[in-house]
Write a sequence for this structure.
């Protein structure tokens, strides 16, 4: 089981009331909400391995170089020496280091790679895996990893931190009209995504993109059809796709997750008991983690 950690703690922050606070009055709604969600995932799915995948760089320069608008609207401060600062709610930012310390003390593997997003870490671990994988994320971008043959599916929280929807190839066909995770990636880059600053192809929405993929198989097939006067593309479709050719040349590298990221050594095994019990006890008292932490530890021990 691979957690898109930032996606999930953002969900927890907005899904759990800010009135959930530490003894000193500091909000810990994201911390406790995330711990409760992980506890539910462990209890319901009993994974052998669990990895909290991290955004060491939420807006990698190599993606920005290809598409400068990539996540540009989320930047609050640019940096020449490291990742740009992302817009994060004032009362969430102080909770992120707490989340990291608690996960480390519990013994849940926390893995990131400089210059890459958590999506890329997840993509690399999926590629390395020899068995079924559940990717837990609130970000549709990772639907591209769905693969029934390899047993890769996405658990996608629909409302807050409630029971996640299981996304497999049947779900992709029903919801988006595409037959695979790889086809979803092509759909996403054709359609565009304002939340990620991806322009897409002007005038090509989700349904049109799905029809094009059904007719021509993948992005390469669509581009081949643009250059083939005998193809069944309408004149308007041909014009729109031709006008977006430069974007379509670079978009695949931006939209598709990396699968070959160098990762540090780590132990992904699900811990049965806390790795650093004394430190965890101190964190629990300092931040008032109470029942949320207890439920997680009970789930791990079970």
């Amino acid at each position: 089981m691979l957690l898109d950690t930032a996606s999930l703690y953002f969900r927890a922050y907005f899904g759990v009331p800010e009135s959930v606070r530490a003894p000193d009055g500091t909000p810990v709604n994201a911390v406790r909400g995330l711990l409760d969600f992980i506890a539910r995932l462990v209890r319901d799915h009993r994974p052998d391995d669990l990895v909290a995948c991290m955004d060491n760089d939420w807006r990698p320069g190599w993606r920005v170089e290809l598409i400068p608008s990539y996540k540009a609207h989320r930047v609050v401060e640019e940096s020449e020496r490291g990742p740009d600062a992302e817009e994060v709610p004032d009362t969430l930012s102080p909770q992120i280091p707490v989340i990291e310390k608690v996960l480390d003390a519990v013994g849940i593997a926390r893995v990131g790679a400089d210059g890459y997003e958590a999506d890329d870490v997840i993509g690399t671990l999926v590629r390395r895996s020899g068995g079924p994988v559940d990717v837990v994320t609130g970000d549709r971008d990772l639907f591209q990893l769905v693969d029934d043959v390899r047993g890769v599916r996405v658990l996608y929280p629909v409302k807050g931190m409630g029971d996640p929807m299981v996304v497999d190839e049947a779900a992709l066909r029903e919801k988006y009209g595409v037959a695979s995770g790889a086809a979803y990636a092509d759909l996403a880059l054709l359609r565009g995504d304002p939340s990620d600053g991806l322009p897409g192809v002007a005038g090509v929405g989700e349904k049109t993109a799905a029809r094009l993929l059904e007719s021509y198989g993948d992005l390469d097939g669509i581009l081949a059809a643009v250059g083939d006067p005998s193809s069944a593309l309408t004149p308007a479709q041909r014009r729109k796709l031709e006008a977006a050719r430069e974007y379509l040349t670079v978009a695949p590298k931006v939209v598709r997750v990396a699968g070959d990221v160098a990762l540090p050594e780590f132990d992904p095994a699900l811990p049965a008991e806390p790795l650093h019990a004394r430190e965890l006890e101190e964190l629990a008292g300092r931040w008032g983690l109470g029942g949320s932490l207890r439920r997680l530890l009970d789930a791990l021990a079970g």
In short: The chain has a mean pLDDT of 94. The beta strands are 2-4, 51-53, 75-77, 85-86, 109-111, 133-136, 152-157, 164-167. The chain has 13 helices and eight strands.
